[in-house]
Write a structure and sequence with these properties.
Number of strands: 10
Strand order of the largest sheet: 2-3-8-5-7-6
Length: 670
């Protein structure tokens, strides 16, 4: 109920939040935890260091956590501790993605540059250079370049980190006053990891030029080697099959795990296609070549002939563009599909007529007051919270925070449909819990078993399982009785109240009575507007993924431009020879435009297909429909950006290469 207080004083504005101060007894009463405190502040006496005092306090407080220095912020401001945990998770997740993409891109670029120097390596092998010397030469060159790039990248990365902090703050992932801590360890780690990735890529790229026999070296250097080795073919197609096999996982698992596996499956398929890229592009070009020659005659014939003769070069140009398209589509539409699945299930599962909510929650008394109004059949309080589940996996302990809801079991029927498949949700009372079907299977629990976990505030719980349900996207993995959910949630408030109208009641009269309840800030809305339990977190995670993926896609865009420029620059003598035998500059330019269209077309089509299969299977598992959810404009923007990047990079590099006089360019060494 509303309560009146007398203002006894005004303090200076706190640095980061508004606050009301009460006596210890009143504060404990308002928090609902009489005899308990969230934290105790201890001041050091003269001459006592904080570390010494912390040790003394820890010795007498037993299991209580003692924090000093900057660690105090995580105790006083819970959002700071959550932010630190979230940033560590982001670094681990997207750091791994970025490192994998970096190895893949660097290996592709090195393979291209080494292929351009095949005459040089062939000559070295012919004059008795050993395979070990060739590998050492490539390794040392790569190390020098990687060190220089690592130092520059580590320095520029600090500026990117500052931009990411601002972006994360803008979307609400981190507090606005969360500072960026700059130290020597992240740049050093970036240099070490970058150097390791480059050396690994160099080892892979150096295998062929170092293994070729001296007698065959000069002969093979004259023309591009067409056939792929058996080991490469087996590895590439095995990765493709494994990736598409992994895309089937969302048919059996749901939630964030399914979304992550779907994206990873796309990446594995792309890597597999890159390994067998010359074979795949060769098959596609074989189909396109007659069309190009028939429609554009001279320029089309030259473009088709070049593409057929240089399948490795074409595959090197297609690969980073393909990766950019597939990765961007898979990441974006997997998140939109997951969010849509949760929203659709929440809408289907909410059978109440109205939802009552407030800016910071609603008092538990609102449900009681609403339930007593004429024409109201039931009023169900909803508390959104989380629980911590610790499961043993061999010698390690896996700890996960999972979404949960607190409901009044006796009031659920008619307001919410949880899709109960075993037990009865009406049995949900003190000492009991309901689990989603996937969670119950994962924990190997049956009706009547005890389920051990921790509430969101860390308090241990052991509750009896009374029901399992299938609508886990809408209600999370745990449904708790409303009282313990309130008790172990900081504000001890309900997030909302779902109201079901009596069959013969007047809708307008019931809505007016609900709006007239004497609770400031209370809003009444149709129950269809109720979101999934973690809707806010899901939106923040979605925005976070977009920012992080944008960084990776930006790196890929640089790689695409670099690769396309490299593949064009190496052809200066080819362009000169065409000019000397009578081909006009306009015909050469048109030939390169057609090659650019072929490159972009293959990348866009394959990238779309590679992303579409895992996305379709993910949507079948989550929503029952193979069509991904999300705006078409993003797809058009992705393929439009990829096409623009490819055409501009090839067009500019072609224009620069054609500036030299043919008679001068023909004499240049490759």
């Amino acid at each position: 109920m509303p309560e009146t207080f007398k203002v006894s004083g005004v303090v200076g504005s706190p640095s980061r939040q508004s606050a009301l101060f009460f006596t210890p007894a009143k504060a404990a009463q308002l928090a609902g935890t009489p005899g308990r405190a969230h934290a105790v502040g201890v001041l050091a006496g003269p001459g006592v260091t904080p570390e010494t005092l912390a040790g003394r306090v820890a010795a007498v407080t037993g299991p209580a956590e003692v924090a000093t220095g900057v660690e105090r912020s995580a105790v006083e401001f819970p959002d700071v501790g959550q932010t630190r945990t979230l940033l560590l998770a982001i670094a681990g997740s997207f750091g791994g993605f970025a490192l994998l993409v970096a190895v893949f891109v660097v290996a592709s670029t090195l393979a291209l540059t080494i292929n351009q120097r095949r005459r040089e390596f062939a000559l070295l092998r012919a004059v008795a250079a050993t395979p070990r010397q060739i590998r050492k030469l490539i390794g040392v060159e790569t190390t020098l370049v990687a060190l220089a790039a690592g130092v520059l990248g580590g320095t520029l990365g600090l500026a990117v980190a500052a931009g990411l902090r601002d972006a994360f703050a803008a979307i609400g992932v981190v507090p606005a006053d969360f500072r960026l801590a700059i130290g020597p360890l992240p740049p050093l780690a970036a240099v070490v990891l970058g150097l390791g990735a480059a050396r690994l890529a160099a080892w892979v790229a150096a295998r062929r030029p170092s293994a070729i026999r001296p007698v065959e070296a000069l002969g093979e250097a004259a023309v591009e080697r067409r056939a792929l080795g058996r080991g490469r073919l087996v590895t590439g197609w095995a990765l493709v099959v494994a990736g598409f096999g992994g895309a089937l996982v969302p048919l059996f698992l749901r939630g964030d795990v399914a979304t992550a596996i779907s994206t990873m499956a796309t990446l594995v398929v792309v890597i597999g296609l890159a390994v067998v890229g010359p074979q795949v592009t060769g098959l596609v070009v074989r189909v396109l070549a007659p069309v190009l020659a028939r429609v554009w005659r001279i320029s089309g014939y030259l473009a088709a002939a070049n593409a057929q003769a240089g399948t490795r070069r074409l595959a090197a140009a297609v690969t980073p563009l393909l990766l950019s398209v597939a990765f961007a589509l898979a990441t974006f539409y997997s998140q939109t599909s997951s969010t849509a699945a949760a929203a659709e299930q929440a809408a289907r599962s909410t059978t109440a007529d109205y939802v009552l909510s407030g800016p910071a929650g609603v008092s538990p008394e609102v449900a009681t007051a609403a339930g007593g109004l004429p024409g109201v059949a039931a009023a169900t309080p909803v508390v959104r919270t989380s629980v911590i589940v610790a499961t043993s996996q061999g010698d390690t302990m896996d700890v996960q925070r999972k979404p949960a809801q607190g409901l009044a079991g006796g009031q659920v029927r008619g307001a919410l449909d949880l899709g109960v498949d075993q037990g009865r949700i009406t049995d949900l009372a003190a000492g009991t819990v309901a689990l989603s079907r996937p969670e119950a299977d994962w924990l190997d629990k049956r009706i009547g078993d005890e389920v051990s976990f921790y509430f969101g505030d860390g308090a241990p719980a052991k509750l009896r399982l009374v029901a399992t349900y299938t609508h886990d996207l809408a209600f999370g993995d745990f449904v708790l009785p409303v009282e313990p959910a309130r008790e172990h949630t900081g504000g001890r408030l309900d997030d909302s109240v779902l109201v079901r109208r009596a069959v013969d009641a007047d809708p307008a009269a019931v809505a007016a009575a609900l709006r007239a309840l004497p609770y400031p800030g209370l809003t009444v809305a149709p129950a269809a507007s109720a979101a999934a339990p973690d809707g806010g977190d899901r939106q923040a995670q979605f925005a976070l993924n977009l920012v992080a993926v944008g960084v990776i896609v930006g790196y890929l865009a640089i790689s695409v431009a670099n690769t396309l420029v490299l593949t064009t620059a190496q052809r200066s003598r080819e362009f000169a020879l065409l000019r000397l035998v009578g081909t006009t500059r306009r015909q050469v330019t048109r030939m390169m435009r057609l090659e650019a269209l072929v490159t972009v077309g293959i990348a866009v089509v394959l990238g779309t297909l590679v992303a579409l299969v895992p996305l379709g299977l993910l949507n079948v598992g989550l929503r029952g429909s193979p069509w991904p959810s999300g705006p078409w404009s993003v797809y058009i923007g992705v393929i439009g950006g990829a096409a623009l990047l490819g055409l501009v990079a090839l067009g500019v590099s072609t224009w620069v290469t054609l500036r030299a006089r043919p008679i001068d360019a023909i004499g240049l060494r490759e």
